[in-house]
Amino acid sequence: MSLWPLLLLAATVSAGFDASGCGTSKGCWFVPEECASAVASCVSAVSFARQGDGQVEVELFSSKPSAATNYLSLGFSDDQEMGGEAVTHCAFLEKPEVHVTYNFGKSNAPPKEANEQAAESEVVQLVEAKREADSLYCRFRQKLVPSVESPFFPKLNSSFVLLFARGKTSQPRALAPHSFDAKSPDFPAVSPRKLNLDEDFSALSSGPKMSDAPLQESSLSGQTRRNLVVAHGIMMLIAWLFCVAVAVFSARYLRQHWPHKTPLGLRIWFHIHRTLNVFATVVMLLSLLLVFVAKDWTWRGPWFTHSSEQNLYGGSIHSLFGAIAVILGVSQPFNSLLRCGPDHRARPIFNWSHRVVGLLGFLAALVAVFIAALKFPSLWADAGWALALVVLYGVLAVLLVAAAEYANAVERRRVHEVALELKAAQQRRGEQVSVVTRGRASDKHKKILGALWVVAVGLSLAIAVILVVLCAVS
């Protein structure tokens, strides 16, 4: 995948795409590079030529599309990643059409404002479009400097990284997701350097100057970035869906077990709770580091200067809930340092604050994982199964907690009834009445909670492992 910066030695024409002018009257980008002399063998080809009326004429060509493929799109990006760029596309449905859209993160949307919709036909016009059995081709003209200020209408007199994609859509004005399989011919192509679409090739005397703003190469390849994001996801799945889940369930429902076993002076449930939470905190921080490295240390969530569409797209919301989860999760070990004695009057305040912060953090993490399964299909070997497992996890978590709380309620009722019977017996004998506020848990109650704990640990481990595998082999 590369620019073809030299003059063609022989003219080649395929489905309307004439490569004979490449390097002399127009700029061209071929994928792969070696197909330049035989355009029909190219996976894709793009050309651009400045016109005298303040417009640029763009050609898009793609060979061997599937029967379902019905759009070709060209994104004008500041970097090599999808997200935050204007897109012009040709749709081949009932009739060929050309439209503009915008990538809000990984989601694409057409203009919604009335002035933007009205200006679209002035900014971009379809010149020619062909659909043949083995190719798609379209040619359109677009204003270099639109009169309407809008993210949908980029100023094409500057340099951009071009993002070429093809796929299937059900409506001409909006694009459906393209392939996320890097091995698929339908996976988007990215120009290896920025291109200046306002280049005047006829004025060049010493060979074509394809861009006056070469793309600064990143120290990280696209595959490395993806691997870092996948590692981030795997670590968060382990931290939240297993470690934190088991730690919380243990603290809530194992307190009555092994009351006389206190290794290192602490109850067993507390060892489980603290160890897993500390481990999860370390994993969360490492995972956060990885994703920031992958994203060039930039915040990809909602921000004051972003548009509402940018702030509400899936990736942005995922970042927001993920950040909330990490902040609350990391705060818990420090919050625990404020724990006072069991009989201190402020102990209920600590107990409830610790519980609420932990619960909110876990819910935020679960929402972030749900959005990742729903909006990032390329990060899963099977996004459908991933989404189903996340939903199943949430449902099972609610059912297990409900069952355990019901068991606790039954036990509290039993203890209360025993206390009332004891009080009545003492009154009948004329003895001093003692108030019983806490009773010894019955063996049956402990067995029920123990069984629920085993089920919770087993299900958490199983679902977390399956999700990790789906993410790792994507």
Automatic annotation (TrEMBL):
Source superkingdom: Eukaryota
Residue intervals of the Cytochrome b561 domain: 197-412
Keywords for this protein: Electron transport, Membrane, Signal, Transmembrane, Transmembrane helix, Transport
Domain DOMON, chain residue ranges per copy: 42-167
Predominant location category: membrane
GO cellular component, one term: membrane
Transmembrane regions listed in the UniProt entry: 229-254, 275-293, 313-335, 356-377, 383-404, 448-470
Gene3D superfamilies: 1.20.120.1770
Record localization: Membrane
Residues spanning the signal sequence: 1-15
PROSITE patterns: CYTOCHROME_B561 (PS50939), DOMON (PS50836)
Protein name: Cytochrome b561 domain-containing protein
Phylogenetic lineage: Eukaryota, Metazoa, Ecdysozoa, Nematoda, Chromadorea
